[in-house]
Amino acid sequence: MKGIKNIIFDLGGVILNIDYQATNKAFTDLGVTDFHSLFSQFKGNKLFDDLETGKVSNEEFLTEMLKYTPAGTTEQQIIDAWNAMLLDFPLRRLQILQQLRQHYNLYLLSNTNAIHMAAFNKILEESRGIPSLATFFDKAYYSHLIGYRKPDKESYQLVLDENGLKPEETLFIDDTLPNIEGATAVGVQTIHLLAPRTITDIFK
Q1: 3-state DSSP call for residue 36?
Q2: Of all helices (H) and strands (E), which one includes residue 83?
Q3: Which of 58, 66, 121, 149 qualifies as a cystine partner to 143, CB 3.0-4.6 A?
Q4: In whole angstroms, what is the distance from residue 114 CA to residue 99 CA?
């Protein structure tokens, strides 16, 4: 951490526990055939990419997903299946963020979408009594709001430029290798967080 003044965190798999297979199973249970070909952690189809960069609305996403589900499926069932991957915020990770913020500038950079954002903030409020993740960061950047997603270099550059951060003084933590490589390409220091390792192993 020598020389580091700023830390940019990924969300899913770093702060929030996620299980992509839970969403895969939920859609399969709804009757969607081969959902995995529509979506995976590393390469979603254009619909998911567009949702994550704000190019399609929630309504457009739900309408499109209804085409892949049996007749009678409701939008709420699709929302619930889509959110099934979102699990919990371990208390120790949130405590670490609070502690780090006393010594570093903290930022969040997440590939996400409006449906998930509403859901994980609800999980945070119901489980920890905190209404928004924004509480833990100097600023939070969500792909569907900024129009760029990792590993696009523009996403990292936006965080650096808006906050006047020097890449060499900035650490980025993510659990996905392409996202780490994207950050490295703009000169940011990185930690590739591979399970079962968590941020509690880094910041003790």
Answers
A1: helix
A2: helix 75-83
A3: 149
A4: 28
- Rg of the Cα trace of the chain? 17
CA distance 125 to 19: 20
Helices (H), 55-163: 58-66, 75-83, 91-100, 114-128, 143-146, 153-163
Give the predicted TM-score (pTM) of the model. 0.95
Report the candidate in 86, 131, 80 with the shortest Cα–Cα distance to residue 110.
86
Distance CA 99, CA 107 (A): 14
* Strand 170-174 relative to strand 189-192, pairing: parallel
**What pLDDT digit, counting tens, does each position of 64-123 carry?**
999 989 999 999 999 999 999 999 999 999 999 999 999 999 999 999 999 999 999 999
Instruction: Give the C-alpha distances (Å, rounded to integers) separating 60 from 44, 54, 55, 116.
Output: 16, 11, 10, 15
Indicate the angle between helix axes 75-83 and 20-30, nearest 10 degrees. 150
- Answer whether 52's CB lies under 8 Å from 145's CB: no
